[in-house]
Amino acid sequence: MLRTTHDGIRNTISVNGSTVNHIPVLAETLAEQINLPPDGVMVDATIGQGGHSLLFGKLLGPEGVIVGLDVDKSAIQRAHFILKDLVCRVVLLASNFSQISQQVGKLGIEKVDFILADLGVSSTQLADPEMGLSFQTNMPLDMRIDKSLETTAADIVNEADEKRLADVIYRFGQDRASRRIARFIVRQRQHQRITTTGQLAAIVCKAQQRAAFKRKPRIHPATRTFQALRIAVNDELENLKKLLASAPKLLNKNGNIAVISYHSLEDRLVKNNFKQNEKDNIYRIITKKPIVPTREETTRNRRARSAKLRIAQKLVN
To answer: Is the same domain home to 116 and 256?
Structure first.
């Protein structure tokens, strides 16, 4: 059961009887930084709950266009509800943003004025048991944002050898305890297949010698392992590289690309891409240092606490 209401840029969503508040990250900051003309074309590469697009869509007139992409078909449905009253043209497509050039081209659009990618996992997705993303609630261990993908997190956890498991956790989660965690996972799966997020979180906590009754660390002990598996399952970094590579050809002169990342692996890719394009006289970097949320925003929206926003402007046609 899905119900969605919105007030300003805060969306209240009911997923399977649970109410989830979704607030788009750094939305007000983005609005201050990006000047979108009334007839502009915006591509929201991760439409999510539609919060960012709603904000910019209110600035667009009947000639304006929003193209929204997302691999989560439920997100497409929610965004459709949120954006249905905008006067601009809204086209929502179930597609990975790695396919941005192909999808925009199919619509007969040659150039766009603004590309936005918020790379975070939404509160709604974390609360959805079908996603299998949360270590806070026990749910099937899946982690596929795009359900057409074949390999789940459970497949990797139960079938990858110990070395590959350790490599995934270290490379994508940057967890120094990766070898120990992988060893504990392999040991446990010899007795019982690991099928739920609760099982995996307990194993990781045990590997890190964290007990539930102890004082909570800065982040949950399973955070990095879950991040690593999600990245591996959804091929997130390779897809981001493809998006960044496509952007210069799509953007109009003086058009902008804005990316909100949530961990150093993503942010480093964006930073290096922008720097190389600036060196090649294709981009001008607007944010010499990434913009981060204010204390007020992180208090209001805890999900924003690790967000980093980088913006670049295209200099040439």
So the answer is: yes
Cα distance between residue 71 and residue 230, in whole Å: 14
Identify the CATH number of the domain in which residue 114 sits: 3.40.50.150
> End-to-end alpha-carbon separation of the chain, Å?
46
| pLDDT tens digits for range 236-288 | 999 999 999 999 999 999 999 999 999 999 999 999 999 999 999 999 999 99
Q: Are residues 86 and 139 in the same domain?
A: no
Rounded distance, CA 48 to CA 122, Å? 7
Cβ-contact 74, 14 below 8 angstroms: no
Q: Model confidence at 41, in pLDDT bands (50, 70, 90)?
A: very high
CATH code for the domain in which residue 135 is found: 1.10.150.170
**Residue pointed to by tokens 């919060």:** 51
Cβ contact 23:301 at 8 Å: yes
Residue where one domain finishes, among candidates 204, 234, 264: 234
116 φ/ψ angles, rounded to the nearest 5 degrees: -125, 135
One domain, residues 113 and 255 = yes
Q: How far apart are alpha carbons 96 and 93 in whole angstroms? A: 9
Q: Which residues contact 226 (CB under 8 A, 6 or more apart)?
A: 133, 135, 143, 173, 197, 200, 201
Between CA 98 and CA 101 the distance in angstroms is 8
Query: Do 242 and 284 share a structural domain?
Result: yes
22 pLDDT band (50/70/90 cuts)? low
In this structure, are strands 112-118 and 41-44 parallel, antiparallel, or unpaired? parallel
Q: 28-47 b/e with 16+ CB inside 10 Å = b?
A: ebbbeebebeeebbbbbbbb
Q: Which residues are CB-neighbours of 214 under 8 A, at least 6 positions away?
A: none
> Among 9, 19, 2, which residue's Cα sits nearest to residue 83?
9
Q: Are 310 and 274 in contact (CB under 8 A)?
A: yes
The whole-number pLDDT of residue 239 equals 98
State the residue range of the domain holding 248. Answer: 2-124+236-314
DSSP code for 122: P
The average pLDDT across 42-67 equals 96
